[in-house]
């Protein structure tokens, strides 16, 4: 009998099922004869009537037709559009349950991937106000029925859902998006067409200083030509006179990458400022800067506490970005060496160090694993290493180079629990012990969670 005949459901089936779990991305899980069904907007403990919409070899997707029973943890006011676009896929689940769920994700990977069930995963540190926190938005601009629209793509599609309230963004950022959208409409600027690679505006990107309230609006264009540019700037400033920076970013490539490499100042400055951990930072269009400033400070304080820093410590700040975490503790250690692959970020880090009166930092642009090996070869002997890599985690060559210099402590900040678990398992083989992990929720209402752990040389 073929596997296809063994699948117990088929497209368009109507069934009643019990939801038993949530996927990593927030879909309800039910099973029919052991066969998984993934159901949008369904929570564990709910009994639902469903319509099967897609059947694959190992699982199927379904949507809810009717709720027979609902979870006591359901948020009835959840906006389905924000869930379907992936902006806030967990907003139907009460926040205390969200952070419990995220902690359990880390427990799971520590057992399954790291094979380290003995490591304690502490309670998640959550936000007091878990919405309106993002200090950055990247919003696509497209034509729908002849009207220029801003919104977000429905998950796994190129279908733009027009939105005005993004829920998790600073309200002033939402306002700036709508004002810019209306200006572009008024001046008949053409939105980008993916299919034909035509049009003028691809994205509107807005950044805001959490403490300074400085605002940057970035118009991402398909070519260097932006029609009616003077009128666009004048109209935006008439409505948002407090805007410190209006930039044009030119992205001529047909790509999913939002920002190109060329920036042009249309008004004001090329950067805005914000404060983090008592230091000032210049933020340019491409700068990596944590999107949740309030929780980033909690994360960094936790990381610094774990590091047990002294005046004699020599610290490597890998994946340093614009220098935020390294400069937070630079004045309490002997020296900080920072590495980052984005050259512009390194230039920002150097400027930030000067402006913050920090003289004991060295910043180098390049891949962390290559620069790390270079420092090993030069005889630099760090006592502490901070790592805060992208979602893909650490290259094994970086892990081995970092172990070669035998730091006493390695503080690992991660935005991907699975790669964190993979990497700490390698560190364990090489003689570094992970004592505990703390989840910190920088991304409420989404499935993303940061965590931080301390590795100590045995």
Please render the helix and strand layout as text:
Blueprint: H1 3-6, E1 14-18, E2 21-22, E3 28-32, E4 35-40, E5 47-55, E6 60-69, H2 80-84, H3 95-112, E7 120-121, E8 136-144, E9 147-153, E10 160-162, H4 171-186, E11 201-208, E12 215-221, H5 229-239, E13 245-250, E14 262-268, E15 272-276, E16 279-283, H6 293-307, E17 314-318, H7 324-329, E18 335-340, H8 343-355, E19 361-365, H9 368-377, E20 384-387, H10 396-404, E21 409-414, H11 417-429, E22 432-440, E23 450-457
Helix pairs in contact: 4-5, 9-10
Please tell me the CATH architecture of the largest domain by its name: 3-Layer(aba) Sandwich
Note the total helix count: 11
Radius of gyration: 24 Å
Number of domains: 3
Strand content: 25-35%
| Topology-level CATH name of the largest domain | Rossmann fold
CATH class of the largest domain: Alpha Beta
Give me the CATH superfamily of the largest domain.
Answer: Vaccinia Virus protein VP39
**Mean pLDDT, as a whole number?**
95
Show unreliable segments: none
Q: What does the main sheet amount to?
A: 8 strands, mixed
Shape category: globular
**What's the count of strands?**
23
* Class of secondary structure makeup: alpha/beta
First-to-last CA distance: 54 Å
